[in-house]
Amino acid sequence: MTDARTAIALAHREEWARVVASLAKRFGDLDIAEDAAAEAFAIAVERWPADGVPANPGAWLTLTANRKAIDRIRREQARADKHREALMIADDTQLEPLGAIDDDRLRLIFTCCHPALSMEARMALTLRLVGGLTVPEIARGFLVQEGTIGRRITRAKAKIAAARIPYRVPAPDDLPARVSGVLAVLYLVFNEGYLATGADTDPVRADLTAEAIRLTRLVHALLPDDGEATGLLALMLLTEARRPARVGSNGELVPLAEQDRAAWDASLIAEGHRLVRERLEAGVAPGRYQLLAAINAVHTDAPDASDTDWTQVVALYDQLVRLDPSPIVSLNRAIAVAEVDGPAVGLALVDALAHDPALAGYHAFHATQAELLRRLERPTEARDAYDRAIALAGNTAEVGYLSRRRDQLDRLG
Question: Where are the membrane-spanning stretches (predicted)?
Fold first, then answer.
């Protein structure tokens, strides 16, 4: 019984996307693909403990799901095409080679992350159809009602059908932009886990970061030569490696400089560094995720915070600003510059960004101001900046840390 349950859980992680993708290609309907896959796994839960785990779980699940899908189409004659049904029945016992299935999964990912869908819909659809998460699991992850997630998924599938969004890998000319959209979805999922925005949830959501890493590994495996897919995976691994040290026993966020580096996950760091080196050796100009991964590699390479090569960090941010001149990248560059040239220089760069409306409601901007003002011994201004940051921060661990830093100023007078 235990072995069967373990096998079902493993099959769900490894085979869900394959089964859904195979059915989506064959039947051209995401609803049918999702429902039939779910039925196949439900049957496995009933039969595998009694009958034993099949030699090829993925093939068993795919075949069972195909039969369930055909049964449904037979019941819904209005949705059936008799010629297509005949082809399906004739091919019922055939299983596609691994390469074709991998192509199907890639098609499924691009369909779920199509730019015609809202970002919220893309995330929900990807987690459901590619990740295999249930609607309640997705709802808990993003702190919204189950009905809201269900409606997002339903509307997204309806839009795909109504707009006749093709179930295919984009043409070579469109591929870079579309891959970028897929990676953006996965990075948003990871970031929600890395620093959860809700006040009533754990400050760090390991379930979401783990799922984002799993799906990014899938994209990397399917597109091994894509530098940005490699870069995003490296970035996630190097960031996730620090998770055990990011929140203290008091529930407060622990800044990078104060973290216990012995608690970092050495295996994730080694893998992340290997991927960063792999991209450097490719001799191709790095993209945004590759540069962010390289910055994190510098941080995780330092045995102590005082050993950090901040000059190299600034140089990497200089490259990143040219690729992505966003105010948040400029803010992070200013933080690095402050470590090289001092807090006064860093604060001048931060203050120069104050006019940008994108930063007015960004708590990290005000927190950065507060820390630099603190270092410059300007407590009154620092206290005001802490207050602004605390009012905007939604993460409980971050609020705890910022509040303590502000209160220390009060005690110092």
Answer: none
**Domain locations along the chain:** 2-97, 176-308, 334-413
pLDDT per residue as tens digits for the range 91-115: 443 444 434 445 788 888 899 999 9
Question: CA angle, corner 246, sides to 339 and 132, nearest 5?
Answer: 125
Number of H helices, E strands in the chain: 20, 0
Token readout for 91 is 């091919």
20 close to 129: Cβ distance less than 8 angstroms: yes
* Token couple for 316: 């990497």
Other residues' Cβ atoms within 10 Å of the Cβ of residue 292: 24
**Within 10 Å of residue 143's Cβ, how many Cβ atoms?**
15
- The label of the residue with tokens 């995780």 reads 300
Q: What is the Cα–Cα distance from 236 to 398, expressed in whole angstroms?
A: 20
The CATH number of domain 334-413, selected from 3.40.50.2000, 1.25.40.10, 3.40.50.720, 3.40.1190.20:
1.25.40.10
